[in-house]
Amino acid sequence: MRNFTLSLLLALAAAANTAAGESAPRIPDLDQFLAVLPAQSAPSVPSPSRAAYLSQASGLSGERLFQYLHQATEFSFPKGGTAYLNAKKYMFSVADNTGCGGRPGVVAFYSQVCVPGASEHGEDYREQGDANGDGYVDSDGMNAEHSWPQGFFNSELPMRADLHHIFPTFIKPNNTRGSSPFGVAGRAEYSTSSGSRFDGSVFEPADAVKGDIARALLYFVVRYYDRDIRDGMNYRDFWTSRVPMFLQWDRQDPPDAAERRRNDLIERYQGNRNPFVDDASLATRIGSAVFQSH
Questions:
Q1: Once rounded to an integer, what is the mean pLDDT over residues 236-248?
Q2: Which of 14, 124, 190, 205 is most buried, by CB atoms within 10 Å?
Q3: Rg of the chain's alpha carbons, rounded to an integer?
């Protein structure tokens, strides 16, 4: 794969140089590179925008870093009735279609069960038997889990369609979590074989995705703290008191290749990145107190 990638880069650079009449080598940008790759093998490649914004954040910490990332994550999202539908289609067919054993497929986030398919529609990713061990069969497939529940921001755009905090899940665990805060569950009244649990008060995601949840919520607050995101909620219980836990989850479950790939693909779709996936030091440099103040 490494030789194949290098060959592609050299070929694209040579073509670009020939077309421009240049003799100095020039590396193609991310979009040129990804355009010639098979859809299911798009790698996690640092883009120019990523390199630029991380460089400018290098000397910042605390509130200054928080506010810088608030500006750096701003993006222009298409408005209208199809924005959320189109985002979900992209999530199922591209951003979260990481594959199952060499075939296209989507991993149900809380259940960690892969369902083969290349469809844009969640209902086509049906659970086969009780694959996640929760005692139910999700024959209606998957839907979109908003880590920051839609009701807390009145299902408004762009929050409703921002893929950096939305994940594909089987319907049962999604409905079970509802709008409950994340936390460490006690005696479980619902659980999956992957380790996701609900005790009637808090929903605990599987260890494999605790960091993903933490980074999604850290991103959400940085991007949208100045919007109406607290409607009908206990903000302290849902967010403020749990910030130290989210920072711990961020540290104990760092981004893997699939999460970095997802970040790249979401940037291609909506034009911004989750900085906490790009740089593991950012959350600690901002610190609990600053997150809790927003």
A1: 98
A2: 205
A3: 20
User: Which structure tokens are listed for 186?
Assistant: 């006690």
pLDDT the model gives residue 80: 79
- Phi-psi region at 21: left, alpha or beta (left = phi > 0; alpha = psi -120 to 50): left
User: Does 2 score more than 70 pLDDT?
Assistant: no
Kindly list the distances between the CA atom of residue 16 and the CA atoms of 30, 74, 176, in Å, as whole numbers in the listed order.
14, 31, 52
Phi/psi for 185 (5° steps) reads: -75, 150
CB atoms within 10 A of CB 177: 22
Is the pLDDT at 186 greater than 60? The verdict is: yes
pTM for the whole thing?
Answer: 0.84
Rounded mean pLDDT, 275-287: 97
Residue 184, C-beta contacts closer than 8 angstroms, at least 6 positions apart: 202, 204, 245
Q: Tell me the two tokens of residue 148.
A: 């920051």
The fraction of the chain above a pLDDT of 90, given in percent, is: 79
pLDDT over 50 at 24, yes or no: no
271: nearest Cα among 87, 63, 148: 87
> Does residue 173 sit in helix, strand or coil?
helix
Angle at which helices 257-270 and 83-90 cross, to 10°: 150
Residue positions counted in the chain? 294
- What value does the mean pLDDT take over residues 168-188? 98
Give me the residue label for tokens 């940008």: 29
Lookup result for tokens 């609990």 = 288
Query: Strand 142-146 vs strand 166-170: parallel, antiparallel, or unpaired?
Result: antiparallel
Are 145 and 166 within 8 A, CB to CB?
Answer: yes
Q: What is the Cα–Cα distance from 216 to 240, expressed in whole angstroms? A: 15
